[in-house]
Design a protein that fits this description.
This protein is α+β, with helices and mostly antiparallel strands and about 80 residues long. It has one domain (about 5-80). The chain has helices at about 5, 50-60, 75-80; strands at about 10-15, 20-25, 30-35, 40-45, 70. It has a five-stranded antiparallel sheet, covered by helices on one side. Strand 1 (about 10-15) and strand 2 form a beta hairpin.
């Protein structure tokens, strides 16, 4: 496993720069997404079993600067 992933403290929180999805990342293979569609919110669990899902969570943790921002737990919960 990537050594930088091993040093991360969970949970981590991110949001897409466009504000349409918020993420709670609980581990390198488990995340929750709040998807904003109009005035509605949909919550999805992402359980990374396949390689593309693992890469997606890895990108949210380590390579997110171009497409997402780090947020607080409070901001995440406000969007539930």
């Amino acid at each position: 496993m990537n050594s930088s992933l091993e040093s991360i403290k969970y949970p981590q929180y991110r949001k897409y720069k466009n504000g349409l999805s918020y993420f709670k990342i609980s581990s390198p293979v488990l995340a929750e997404e709040i998807k904003v569609v109009g005035s509605k919110r949909f919550v999805y669990t992402i359980e990374a079993k396949q390689y593309p899902e693992k890469v997606f969570i890895n990108d949210l943790l380590l390579s997110y600067a171009e497409f997402a921002d780090e947020i607080s737990e409070e901001i995440y919960k406000q969007n539930l």
